[in-house]
Design a protein that fits this description.
The chain has 126 residues and is an alpha+beta fold. Helix content is 30%, strand content 30%.
């Protein structure tokens, strides 16, 4: 585990291996314009059988908070017409919370319903 200073917040340190998510994200975060938000998105699902329905899903542990920059960027993507969600939960995901940026609502779900959501069956039946 490598700990370094946060790229923009001087009084904060980060675990570099987890914070950046990829070497390219780290390169951009450290060497490029600091006015840009660099974000590693957890999932982008393209459901070909349902007219190329594209959903962006950020994953957080149940007690993990969304970063300010992440929240702003995901809201902006939602306003562009993309379906954007955050799933809060912990493995094995017996319970989770799905937050929709479009509706600004959260729904607590069980594992079966989470699987239906990720399979895109959830949206068709509810």
């Amino acid at each position: 585990m490598k700990i370094e200073n946060h790229p923009t917040q001087k009084n904060r340190t980060v675990n570099v291996d987890k914070y950046y998510g990829s070497d390219l994200n780290r390169f951009v975060g450290q060497d490029c314009d600091k006015s840009m938000m660099v974000m590693n998105i957890d999932l982008i699902i393209n459901d070909y059988k349902n007219k190329n329905d594209i959903r962006i899903i950020e994953s957080k542990h149940s007690n993990e908070k969304m970063g300010v920059g992440q929240n702003l960027l995901l809201k902006k993507l939602s306003k562009l017409g993309l379906k954007v969600y955050t799933v809060y939960g912990d493995e094995p995901f017996n319970e989770a919370v799905i937050y929709s940026f479009q509706s600004d609502k959260s729904k607590k779900v069980n594992k079966e319903t989470l699987i239906k959501f990720l399979n895109n069956d959830y949206l068709r039946k509810n």
